[in-house]
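[job 0412] stage=complex_fold ligand=zinc ion status=START
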Amino acid sequence: MLSTPAFRGPIDLHTHSRESDGTESPSELIRAAAAVGLGTVALTDHDSTAGWDEAAREATRVGVTLVPGMELSSRYHGKSVHVLAYLFDPTDQALLAETTAIRESRRSRAERIVARIARDYDLTWDDVLSQTTDGATVGRPHIADALVARGLVADRGEAFAGILRASGEYFEPHYAPDPLHAIRLVRAAGGVPVIAHPATRGRAAVLPEDYLAELVDAGLFGLEIEHRENTEDGKARLRELATRFDLAVTGSSDYHGTGKPNRLGENSTEPAVVAEIIRSGRSAVVGGA
Ligand code: AMP
Ligand code: FE
Ligand code: FE
Ligand code: ZN
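[job 0412] stage=complex_fold status=DONE, emitting structure tokens
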């Protein structure tokens, strides 16, 4: 019989490093996870696996179990849908081609957003680059950090509520596949897909049931229900859907270092769910117990 590698709780399956829009390096993130007593942590940078190797080395060193992962961008009828992907093969060519396309689109889109902002505010693309690690997935959070550095806003939250808001005059979206394609790509790469924070816009904005059924057929594994940005009525709807479609339920922090108020370990996932992710993923967890 196959045995599942040992891993310890508490478990946090959703975090970001500076390889996307977190504020800590992958090793700093792993040390922060160890410092708050987490036994298992997933690194899930947006559209990138660039932090996996560094995080793995540090996880082995400090005795935390790392679940290598990613938060893959997708879009459904104009609304952003984030797909957490765990333990896929990071060399899978189809998935790599897609994440490369998304990151390139994110970068040119960020440059255009900055060009529009620069008509009204003292901000340059170099300001944004100086807030971004080389090779990292660029997003609005880096533009926010540049606005903070220029003294134009107090923090990322103020930037997102104002200059960077999706309904604002400077905004444009980046390329992203639809969720069905995203989930198929993740499964084909041996990964385990979970929809991230599916109810941040409330019950009425949760994906429609017939579409969710298609995602389940394509291999959707679970829903991230315990997340601070899911609304309470949204969570109730997600629990109904998880029961109906026999989906796993996860809970996590979506830690971004100092970039968001979310704290490591503020939500967690049942060990049985993590054991199933480990059994069905093509890549292995690293380090730990
Ligand atoms: P983008 O993908 O470039 O459109 O930017 C969206 C990212 O910004 C998400 O990954 C969030 O983590 C982050 N974000 C959204 N709203 C806020 C906020 N109010 N404060 C800090 N970060 C935010
Ligand atoms: Fe983010
Ligand atoms: Fe997200
Ligand atoms: Zn996230």
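The pocket of fe (iii) ion (ligand 2) is lined by residues 16, 21, 46, 256 (CB under 6 Å).
[job 0412] exit 0
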